User: What shape does this take?
Amino acid sequence: MSSKPKIKELLVESACEHNKTKKGSCNAPTPGATTGGCALDGAQIALFPFADAAHLIHGPMSCIGGAWETRLTPTSWSGRDLTQTGFATDITTNNVIFSGEKKLAAAIDHIVTHYAPEAVFVYSTCVTAMIGEDIDAVCKHRAEKHGIPCVPVHAPGFVGAKNLGSRIAGEAVLRHLIGTKEPEKTTPFDINLIGEHNNTGELWRYRHLLEELGIRVLSTFSGDGRIASIRTAHRAKLNVIICAKSLVSMTRKMQEQYGIPWISCSFYGKTDTSAGILAIAEALGDANLIARTRALIAREEARLDEQLVPYREIFAGKKAVLNTGGNKAWSIASALQDLGIEVVATSVRKSTEADKAKAREYLGENAILMTSPATQQAKVIDDTGAHLLLAGGRSLYTAIKKRIAFTDVNQEKKKSYGGYDGLLVLAEDLKNSLQNPVFELVDRKAPWQK
Amino acid sequence: MAEVRRKSGKPLQVNPHKLSQPMGATLAFLGVDRCMPLMHGAQGCASFAKVMFTRHFCEPIALQTTAVNDVIAVLDGGDYSIVESVKNIHDKITPELIGVHTTGLTETKGDDLRGVASKIEVPLVYVNTPDYQGGLESGWTLTTQALIDQLTESCDRIDAQKIVLVPHVSLQPIEVEKLHDFIESFGFKVVAVPDLSSSLDNHLGEKQASLSSGGVTVAELKQLADAAFVVTVGASVKSVGATLQKKNPAIQHRHFDHVNGLVGTDALVAWLLEASARDTPPPVVERWRKRLQDAMLDSHFSIGQTRFLLVAEPDHLASMAASLREVGGKVSLAISTVDSPILGDIEADQVIVGDLEDAEKMRDAYDLIIGNFHTEALAHRVEKRAVMRGFPNYEEIGIALKNDLLYEGGAYFLFEIANAAERMREAQVHHERERIKLRGAA
Assistant: This one.
């Protein structure tokens, strides 16, 4: 039987709130008015952090060309970091006509011989899916030959957007890896972190705290992940989804197949980090653990508050407008509030219903939830007297026109704002923005302008 | 000359630097003013290209997608998705031009682009750029040819002062501007096609990437055929000369493989003097030639003892190798993205079509690396140094303003490379000294 996931099923995930009210899925992108990556992109983002596995794109160079070695997902894996190693079959006209399956098999052989990975993920792409390459058969045969898992990932770009690709990746791991190995030992406090990609080392901002409490991260999907440990993920006592709605299918199925309950957490800012750690302890249900957790939270918050003192003065009375997507609409807002900055508006353009509700809850009644931030934000800045715009690079010009400080929210793609310590990093970056004269200066009139 | 290996002989690319044909097409359309490049493929095809160029140029990039999904892939012949895209783009903005370019997906399903284009009323240029053929250079060239083929009106007049300049894809925006101005300083009027010098040159403008801002205008493209000369720079764009000559056989074609270094720039200047019937160039040109001569002498000692690995598109390899060779640099290995007729002319010991895995294996052959940002990690692995050139470069800013060509850029290039080579050797000496100290202590 083909390992291709049932796309329709993945699109109408029953554990997604919005699918309770909605009849169909919103799968079809609008031609000529679509932004964002494809399913392949999403699948890569979900799986690439496994640094001990090779990631082989079976397709032409567009599908990998500019996109390898771009993932800032560090690993503690001692072997060669395969997250940062690009593999592609580079399909040619010949392969399109006469099939590229032999080439794919030889490519897997090359990788196993020269890079000794713990597993090989093989990603189909639009072209190889169109010409009907049987990557399942190639993977099965190669897995038997080499004695390592070869996992077919059926996420050609045309099946949908990034989010769907992420689900497909979860599906592939669930089908081919999870439950294929037993852990050496288990503890009552074993958890899986699902959807934590360790972007810019975010996982490392809080994992040590979990470990201090005696909570063991049995496996991660997929930040600083190991193939050997994800194969044992079925023995965890709890699945923790980190800011990733796209993976609820995976955790729901793990609940059905292995009886593992799941919770969803964010580790952005002080409030959410504390709430997240406590939620994990409570879900594990041990009174002693919960008590220890409360003590740890109190200690960490006190330490952080002390370190934030010098910043509070700078941020007192400062107002910010936030223009970013999805759950960041409230998770970054929460972090800003922790710093004493008033968030007067946030964008909910790409947020789910739940995210919108949460944004309202965090920001209060008077805050503006922008549905069309690109056109709204300039006026919102005027109306609210905001001092700071946090947004993607495209909005920089708005800030310059309004002569207010700007912080690129995508900075977090380079450095982590997660966990307790990340808040200090965010505070430092915001301080630097607010004190930087460039936003005032750069748009000053030229000597020849009246 | 060089020993050339034109095929990789491997079943895959490991750590590839090859980029795809549609990416080259996108870039060429971005060199047309108020253009909306429209990539005909799945949404990811455009997204990957958009992310890459946004990060490389640190600029918002205008690019749309026909967003072909599984159903469209099977049922549509391009009619629906392209027509619908054009309509949706026009609902929001009015581009001067829409640049439709295909991908592997839509070529595999075999869309009739020409047929679809003929049904569309708005200004549109189409080009077939499957990504399982060619690469960045060919995508750029095919698109430039399509722009001329489909837009330029035939003409039988000649404007003796007018030159059409066709740069190869690896020339950065400032290089196109420098070349443009250099030729104009000999008394010509120059139109660059495509022209990234005013669109992706890192200028502050009020833009949200809705359309390209800057570049050659559609009006200028229509009126190209009264040029006295078409000057092509880079072997990959040589064929564009003939494309323009079809519109007016009286146009003369002058080709340069590159205009880098002393000899390369001298060749251009010699021709410009002849074509403009002048005895001497503008004084500033003379001055820069003297500065380059001095730069060559100042840098020859360092570069002359350095073995180089170059990793780039074919035309870019040819220009860099020529500059380095002039001051004694030994290009021991040049790795090209794709095959090209120019590979045989590159001044290197060995030229191969390959990837960075090949570079890693042949680490004993070179000291200093010049290549895209991926060569930085390579340099760490093989314990060498790298200087960033070529697509993509996510590690540095200001790339659009990096000038390596003509006398002026040639001097800057030699200084940068010589300084990097010296720092590399200093680090080696330091390393060696520490090792000896440790041995002494033990």
User: Anything to note?
Assistant: Chain A touches chain B through 68 residues (CB under 8 Å). Chain A has 19 helices and 13 strands. Chain A has three domains: 37-176, 190-298, 309-441.
